[in-house]
Amino acid sequence: MTAVEDPTSTAGAPANQVGQARLRKEDARLITGDTTWTDNMTLPGMLHLAVLRSPVAHARITHLDVSGAVDSPNVVAVFTGRDLAEEQGSLPCAWPVTPDMVNPGHPSIAVEEVNHVGEAVAIIVGRSKVAAQDAVEKIDVDYEPLPVVLDMEEAVQDGSPLVHDHTSSNTSYHFVFDAGDAGTGGDTDQAFADADVTVSRRFVQQRLIPAFMEPRSVVVQPSGDNYTMWSATQIPHILRVMAAMVTGIPEHKLRVIAPDVGGGFGGKLQVNPEEVLCLLVARRLGKPVKWTETRSESLMTAHHGRDQVQFIDIAADREGNVKGLRVRLLADMGAYLRLITPGVPALGAFMFPGIYKFPAYRFECDGVFTNKVPTDAYRGAGRPEATFAIERIMDELAVELGMDPLELRRKNWINAEEFPFTTVAGLQYDSGDYGMATDQALELLGYDELRAEQQRRRESGDPVQLGIGFSTFTEMCGLAPSRVLGSLAFGAGGWEQASIRMLPTGKVEVVTGSTPHGQGHETAWSQIVADQLGVPFEDVEVLHGDTAISSRGLDTYGSRSLVVGGTAVVKAAEKVVAKARKIAAHLLEASEDDLEFTGGKFAVKGTPGAGVGIQEVALAIFAAHDYPEGVEPSIDAEATFDPENFSFPHGTHLCAMEVDTETGFVKIRKYACVDDVGTIVNPMIVEGQVHGGLAQGISQALYEEAIYDADGNLTTGTFVDYLLPSAADLPHFDTGNTVHAATSNPLGAKGVGEAGCIASTPAVVNAALDAVRHLGVSDLRMPLTPERVWRAIHQGGDGGDRATAGTNAYGGASTETTAGGGRPASESNASSLGGDR
Amino acid sequence: MIPAAFAYARPTTVDEALEAIASGGEDVKVLAGGQSLIPVMRLRLAAPETVVDLTRVAGLRGVREEGDVLVIGAMTTHSDILADPLIAQYGQLIAQATETVADRQVRHRGTFGGALVHADPAGDLPAVALALDAEFVLVGPNGRRTVGAADFFVDYLTTTLEEGELLVEVRVPELAEADGWGVRYEKFNRVAQAWSIVAVAAAVRREGGRIAEARIGLTNMGTTPLRAGAAEAALAGADLSLEAVTAAAELAAEGTEPSSDLNAQGDYRQHLARVLTKRALTAAAGL
Questions:
Q1: How many independent structural domains does chain A possess?
Q2: A797 is in which domain, residue-wise?
Q3: pLDDT in tens, A211-249
Q4: Domain final residue pick, A616, A641, A666
Q5: A721 touches chain B (CB under 8 A)
C-alpha cells in the first residue's frame, strides 16, 4: 500500500478524482482519536449502566435478590427482567426465511429463564461506571440448572433436550432452494445417480467472534418525550426503526446517531439488548444513561458469526465436468434469533455453486437453536461459508479424479465471453474474466518456482513441506435489489439515499444514508462528487450517521456502500447539475441546450469566455435575486437508488504454505491475489480493504475459534484464548486487480469490503492440505492449530476437537469469573494467584 | 474491566516496601510491572486489599557483576535486560527468552523479578532461571535469605516466598562463550505475542568434542518450570553429535504431566518438548 498520495495532474482542467489514491480525509482524526467515540460522550447528570450476566448457559432463575446492589453506594436504581417484562418487547428478527420459521422471542433481559452464558439478568444504574460495576457483585441469584444444548448434530435428534421448552424442537426452520424446482437447473438426485464420480465431505465452519476494535457503547438522552441515542452501530437508520417498534417510542421522537464508529465487520449490524435497555432505563429515570461494554462482555455477548456444519456432495463425469452439487447445512442460531440470524446461511445458499457451471443444485439448511450467544452477520455473512465449501470440495474432486485442481476449475468455470451468465442458483453474474485474474495471480505468486520447490521438498523428505492452495471465488455484493430482498422475505429494502446541498460559498455537503464505520466513505464520496460537480475534492464534506441529518438510509454492510450508496450520490449530483443548468442558462441568457458542463463550469457552446461555475450558481441561487420563473430557488437535490441486480466481484487467491511436519506449525510462505472489484474509485482504500479482509479470512483458517466447554461457558473469553493475529503473524500480500465494470450501476463498482475475507480462507486450507496430502491427510479442521495439523499427519483424521480448557497463562480467565456476580459462578480464587508479580 | 477498590502504597526503598506490605492488611499484592497483576485485577480474578507499587524503588533496578555471577535487580524491566551489556555478554539465554516475551510495550513495563515471582508455568523466564540454577534473594521481616531455583517454584503461580517477603535480586552464573557455553531458548506459540505452548531453555558446555554439561529447562510442561533431568544426564559426557542430542531429546518429556488446554493436549505437549529440546540442543551445541 502506498503511504503517499499519487501526484495529481499538474495544470489545466482538474484530473478525475475517481481512480486516484487520495489519502483518507477521516484518518487523521480516527487514528489520533481526535473525535468523539460514543464512550467519550459525557452529558450532565449522566448515569452509568452495568449488567449482571448469567454465568450459566441454561437455567431457571429461582431467586433474584437485588437489595444488596440497591443499597450499594452511588447506585440509583436496579432493574430485573421482571421489572421490565411488560415494556421490553422482543428484539427484532427481520428475516423470517420461511413462513413457518419458529422464533421463540428474544427478551433484552432474562425474565424467568437464561438461555446462554452472558445473558442479562439485572441492570445496575450508578452515578459512575465504577459504582455500578461494584454493585454487580452484590446481587444474589439462584439458578435451577436446565439441560444444556450445545452440539447441533445432537440438538436436531429426536429426544434432545430443548433450548426453548415452549417449542417442539430445536430446529427453527428448514430452508430449501432446489434449482430443479426453481427452473434454474436440472434434477439434482438424477444428476448424482447418473454421475461417474461423486465426492462427499463434512466441513465445519467454526464459530467466530467479530472482534471489532471499538467495544459497543450506547448513550441515551431523554428530553421530554424525545430521545436521542448515540450508539457505536453500523446501522443507525435500521436501529431507529427497530428500537421504535420494540419500545413503542414513536419513530419521530427518536433520533439515532452513530458518531465515528471503530469497526463492525457485521458485529454492529444489530439491534442490541443493551440499546433497548438503555432506552427503557432512560425513559424510566428521565436521565441520560450510558452503557459501554468491557472486552469480556463483547466476546461473550455480542453476536458471533459462522458456525455451520456443512455436508457437501459433488458429482462429475470422469473427464471432470461437474454435474451436480448438493448442500445440507446445520446452521447454529444460538439461543435466539437476532436481526438477520436466520438469513445469513440462507444468503449463502445462492453462492455455493461459485463460479462453476453446475447443471443441477440443491440446498437445504436447518437453523438450529443451542444455548450459545446468537450468531448473525460477520464479514461476508453466508458467502464465506459457501465459498469455503465449494473451493474445498473442488480440490477434493480434483484429487478423486487425479486432476490438477486448477485444470478442474478452468474446465468448469464461466468463460469471459459467457457473461452475463445466469447460474444454477438463479443469479445473473454481471461481468468478469476468471482466467485473466488467475493468470495474473499465478504470475504474482511465482507459481512454477514454488511448484518446483514443493517437488524438491517432497523428494528429499524435508520436515518442512510446501503446498499451494487455490480459491477462485465470486460473491454477491451491493445488497440489494429491494424486490429480490422482498422475495427472500427480508424485512427491508436494499435501496440507498443521498442528498447534496450546495452552500452559498460554493462548498458542498453530501448527505449519505450509508453509514461508515471505518471504510473511508468521506474520501470516496468526495472523489465522486468532485468529478460529478467539478468542484475541488477539499470543498466536499460528507455527512452521515445521524437520523436527524441523514433521514433516510439503509447503512453499511454487505459491500453495498459504494455500489448502492455511491450510486445514489451520483444520481443526486446529476440532479444538482440539471437544476444548476437552468439557473446558469438564465444567468448567461442562453438556452439550456446550448450549455456544456465541464470542470465545474457551464459554458455556452461556441462562445469562448462566456460561462459560470456551479459554485457561483450556488451563491446566485442563495441570493435568489435573479432566477428563472417556474423553478425553485435551490439547486440542492436528493436521490434514492435501488439497484436492479447484485454485483459480482471475483478473484483468484493463491496461498503457498509451509507445514512443519514435526510440530504441525503452518506458516504462510507467500500470498498472492488478483481481485476484480469493478471500477476502482480509490485504489488505496481498495487495497486496504483487501488487506484487512485477508487478515480476517486467513485468521479463520489459522487462528480464530469461539470455544464453549461442556457446560456452555465460553472458554475463549479473552484475547488470550480467542486468538487474533497481528501484523507480525501475517505475510506480505501481493495484490493485483483486473477491472471489469459492474453493469448494475453507473460507477461500475462491484464492492470490495468482504472479498479478501471470503476468498482467502479456502486458499489457506487448500494450501496446507496440498503440503501434506501425500502424507495421508485429506482434511484439516479450522482453525489449523499446530496440534490439529500434527494429529492429522501422525494419527489421521482432520485433527479433531481441541481441549476446551482455556490456557492457564497469567492465572487464566474464564467466562464464569468474568461474568460478574451471581451463583454458581466459581469464586474468584485470588489466593491461588501467588505472591507478587 | 474495572478493578475492585484497593489501597495503594508507593514506597521508594526496600524497607519502606516491607513496611507497606506488613501494614497493608490481609491481602497485599506487590506491583512490579503490572503486566499480569493488572489484567487479573481488571477481570476481578484478584481483588487485593492493598497494592504496593515498587516502581519507585530505584535500588531494585539494574544488572551488576559479582565475580562470575550476574546479579539482576528484581525490578529490572525486560527492555533493560535486552539493552544490558553484561546480559549481552554472559546472559544470552536470558536475553533470548526475554526477547520472546509478549510485545514491545509489555517488555517496557514488565520486570524480570515480577515475571519470576508470578511463577506462571507458561511464562518464559522461570524455566530459564531453573535451567541456570538461579538464586533468589528474598528479604522480609525476618531478614534476608537466598533460595535456589529448584526450591523457589512450588506450584502453579506459587513460590516459596512467604507472606511479607519480597524478591530483591536474582543471581545467575555467567555463561561465557569462551568457556564453551552455547545457549538456545526455543519457544513454540501460535502468534508472536502469545505465551509459550511449550518452550525449552537449553545451555550446553562443550569441551574437546564432548558435551561436558547440559542444562535444560522446560516451560509449560507442568504446574512449575521443570528440568529435563533424564535428557541432561544422557548428555553429560556424551559425544558432541547430532545422534547424542537426538537420543537425549527423546527423554525430554520423561516424568512430565503437562496440562491440556485449547492450544495443546498433554501428549502433544510432550511431543513438542522432545522436538523443541532437540532443536534447542542442536542450536546450543552449534551442531
A1: 2
A2: 440-460+649-803
A3: 999 999 999 999 999 999 999 999 999 999 999 999 999
A4: A641
A5: yes
